[in-house]
Structures are given as structure tokens and as C-alpha cells.
Specification:
Mean pLDDT is 92; it is low at 1-23. The chain has a single domain (31-197, 259-411), classed as TIM Barrel, CATH 3.20.20. It contains 15 helices and twelve strands. It has 414 residues and is α/β, with parallel strands linked by helices. An eight-stranded parallel sheet has the order 4-11-10-9-8-7-6-5. Strands 1-12 form a two-stranded antiparallel ribbon. A two-stranded antiparallel sheet has the order 2-3. The radius of gyration is 20 Å and the shape is globular. Bound molecules: glyoxylic acid. Residues 112, 141, 310, 313 line the site of glyoxylic acid. The active site is at residue 310. One of its GO terms (molecular function) is oxidoreductase activity, acting on CH-OH group of donors. FMN binds at residues 110-112, 139, 159, 187, 286, 308, 340-344, 363-364.
Length: 414
Amino acid sequence: MPIESSAAGAAAAPPASPRTAAAAPALALPVRLGHLLSLDDFEEAARRHLPRPVFAYISGAVERNQSLAANRDSYAQYEFVPRVLVDISRRSTAAPLLGRRYAAPFGIAPMGISALSAYRGDLVQAQAAAAGNVPMVMSGSSLIRMEEVARANPDAWFQAYLPGDEPNIVALIERVRAAGFRTLVITVDTPVSSNRENNVRAGFSTPLRPSLRLAWDGLSHPRWLFGTFLKTIALHGMPHFENNFAHRGAPILSQDVVRDLSERGHLDWQHFRTIRRMWPGQIVVKGILDARDARLAVDHGADGIIVSNHGGRQLDGAVAPLRVLPQVVAACPDVPVMIDSGIRRGSDVLKALALGAKFVFVGRPFNYAAAVAGEAGVRHAIALLQQEVSRNMAMLGVNSLSELDASYLRKAGA
Ligand code: GLV
């Protein structure tokens, strides 16, 4: 199967559902970005393009970045055992998930304030995902109203950070439902804010506090300053946190560095039960690392689990999701188990699937892609990852992702 080189998606994929973009005309990547050959390349391009504090916010994690590093290492700990002389000419990267059939087994993970790094960042991700027929999860910690993103991609998922009290939870969930989202992701690994020392050192805060240093960081990155930040203010006004609550939150740039992150340390499964009763669609619980919690989530009505340590951005030293994936899959055979944190290559995607994941999510690289090249960049990143998945399926001797199992892997050095 010659994997298509257009960013539009998969020859092997079914047509996009009638509710998504019907056709995906190719979007040209600027010539200056022709050297972007892998997801890691986008990181380097974004490092140059973005002011230091903005890049630090996206790329950084917490404390000693131990989980961030462990996420990458966990994939290197497995090696493939390929099969040969299998006719793979009709292989397909298509992947079913929660009643839909996507073009590839990966989607765009939720990322806060994506519209600070890329002009209309959440919309760009949502449109590229619709064009490529992969899922996109919009973060509640975003600067574009959820209603706009739902209009741009009616199949987008919404990821909520729960407000700390029931009336606000109920109002937020009502708004998400009215906006038309059908899949709700509840992130459960943020009982308190994590220790983002790297943000403080790089001069990043939310909201951003105006300062001479921040002004210089902006002025020394004119493509971002004019093409993203000032363009946003000129055309859409000062961005605000739009979706943490049913109502609008703080502006992104403010003297008062107090963001309305409500205290949610007291939340428990009782609150999840309330949401389950209210939400008519699918609920995915994200941020689980212990198989017992995964089972509890399913027993409380979750339709899917995302095994995640939040890209290493919450508890430093938290186990890499890949290491606990098989236990979570064994504990929850009745729902799709998904994974994120550390996936950068098609080979990583296939390792996760061989260990039982039904689907994976990738975050930072799609944010970088949106920052450096907008929708064309995200489409390019989706296409690169899909091509890697397809090429590696061929070299593993696999026609369908459902054929993958642990027999295709062994522990390095074992
Ligand atoms: C938001 O979810 C973040 O990790 O910064």
C-alpha cells in the first residue's frame, strides 16, 4: 500500500463522517519548513519561533523532569520482533475507537493555552484533526471559546478540569453539552497545581505578567509577536481563559497573576458520579496510572481510560504510563484503554498498541506544529506520524492494527 504523502490522511481510511469536514484540500507547508521530517523536528523549529517563556511552558515539566525523561525511556525499553514475507500490500492504519473509525490510531491530546503559541491554536488543531480523520481533544484551559471549536470540528472531544464545587461543575458540564460535544474527558491527576519551577525560571505565569523582560522576549521573536500575539489581539481582542467554567475567566495578560483555578483537592468519585448522571455521551477518564483506579473509573461508568502522567507535568517521579499499561488493560477488558505521554514516533505508537492500548494521544508536537506552520503544520505532523505507523506496520508484517500483541515485542536486554 503506497502510503499517501498528502497530509489529508489515509487511502485506507474510510471517508470522514458526514459531520466532519467533507474534503481536505492539501495545504502547502511553507518552503522554509521543508526540513521537518519527524515530530521531533517541530520541537526545534518551535524553540526558535517562540519566545522563551512560551516555549518553556510547552516543553517543560516539573521539578527534575524525571517523569518527562522516563516517558521517553519507557519506549526505548522495548524492541520489535518483526515477521517477514507477509503480504502487507493491503495494510491499513485505520483504528476503531468508541464507535468511530479513525484514519490512524492516534489523536491530538488536550493542551492548555494553545492559542498563545499558535494563532487560533485550538481551532487549527481541530481543523487539521478533522481533515486527517483523527480525534482532537480540546483543553478546558484554553483561550478560544469551546463553542467555536465544536463548530469547526463537531467530532472534537472536550477535556474538563473540574471546578471545585458542584454548582460550577454542573454549569460547566451543561455548557459543554449545549456546545455539542459528545465525548467528555475528565482529567483526574490535578488535585493541586504542580511545581512548575521551569515556568518561574523562564518568566512564564498564567496570566502572563507584563514586564520589560516579557516585552523583550516578544520583540526578539517578531514572527510570533506579529503573526500570533498582536494578530490575535487586533482581530479577536485580549484572549481570556474561556472554558474552565461556564463563564469567562481571567485575561491571558494581566498585572494580577491570580488565575481562577479553583481548589479541587476535595473532589472524589462522588463528583464523578454526578457527572456521569448528567452526561449523555461518552466519558473518558484521563490521568490514571493505577489499575485499581482504572477499574473504579469503569465501575463508575467511564467508557474509556487514558493512562497518562500528564506528559510528566504533574507528579515528578510518577511512573511512565507504558510501564503500567498492561496491568490497566488486564483490569479493564471491557473498555478501550488509551495512553499518552512520550509518544513521538510511529514505532512508539505501535509499541503501545502491542501492549494493549487501543489508541494513543500525542500532545506537544502538535502544539509546536501549529505554532510554526498553523493548520498546514499540524496536517503535516499528522501525515508524518501516520506514514511512520504504516511503514513500520509493513516492516513488522502486520496488515491490521488489531493483529498487534506482545509477541511483536521483547524487553531490551532481556
Ligand atoms: C495543562 O494541562 C498543563 O499541563 O499545562
